Amino acid sequence: xxxxxxxxxxxxxxxxxxxxxxxxxxxxxxxxxxxxxxxxxxxxxxxxxxxxxxxxxxxxxxxxxxxxxxxxxxxxxxxxxxxxxxxxxxxxxxxxxxxxxxxxxxxxxxxxxxxxxxxxxxxxxxxxxxxxxxxxxxxxxxxxxxxxxxxxxxxxxxxxxxxxxxxxxxxxxxxxxxxxxxxxxxxxxxxxxxxxxxxxxxxxxxxxxxxxxxxxxxxxxxxxxxxxxxxxxxxxxxx
Length: 239
Ligand SMILES: Nc1ncnc2c1ncn2[C@@H]1O[C@H](COP(=O)(O)OP(=O)(O)O)[C@@H](O)[C@H]1O
Ligand SMILES: [Mg+2]
Fold this sequence. Notes:
Layout: E1 2-9, E2 17-25, E3 32-36, H1 43-50, E4 58-63, E5 66-67, H2 73-83, E6 84-88, H3 99-104, H4 115-128, H5 144-156, E7 162-166, H6 174-191, E8 194-198, H7 202-205, E9 210-215, E10 218-221, H8 223-238
Parallel strand pairs: 3-8, 3-9, 6-7, 7-8
Antiparallel strand pairs: 1-2, 1-4, 4-5, 9-10
Helix pairs in contact: 4-5, 5-6
The structure holds adenosine-5'-diphosphate and magnesium ion (MG).
């Protein structure tokens, strides 16, 4: 939950830049939220603040009952590692590691698991995204869509309560993007995670149930998306 969250950064030879001017957002279990906005409008900054990567400058931020404004250092890293899964446009896989090793990486930060347990959990997750057969491949040997599926498996392997996807289909062709997005949604539904997706693609945004737009550092209801999904509803009712 964010209330009046701001983020201002210092700029060399200039006035401080206010990227987020007052964000109010409630995210509940199972929510599907899309966020659109012009390039440079602060979408990635917002995701990083919500995912405990960047600290807000002011406001209130609660995460699973914890006051995230008071969380520092290792405690914040632990909470993020356990409860937040990030998916990025550029996949961000470790190029020298196999698909399986990439998926297992977040498990190294989880205490109390042996090498074999980590390997088994990672393998199950890789099978879940349809890449069991490619476990031993390096990312460079995989297609863009496959790399993003590995990144999804890595993001979800610890069963986070919040999945943050920053233009996850931006580097994929339309059909692959749609498939990848449906996969994220399915896996999120299995774990009851909330899913927040930044996208430029109206078809991807339409998969969400709440449509928001970031403008001048504030979150607004995205009226254009709401209109198009309303007319879909009407058509369904009429059919
Ligand atoms: N740490 C920072 N220092 C200075 N400027 C930043 C910093 N982070 C982001 N910005 C600027 O803030 C604006 C919003 O960035 P970003 O959140 O990446 O936008 P978006 O993801 O919507 O394209 C951009 O103009 C960017 O250059
Ligand atoms: Mg961005």
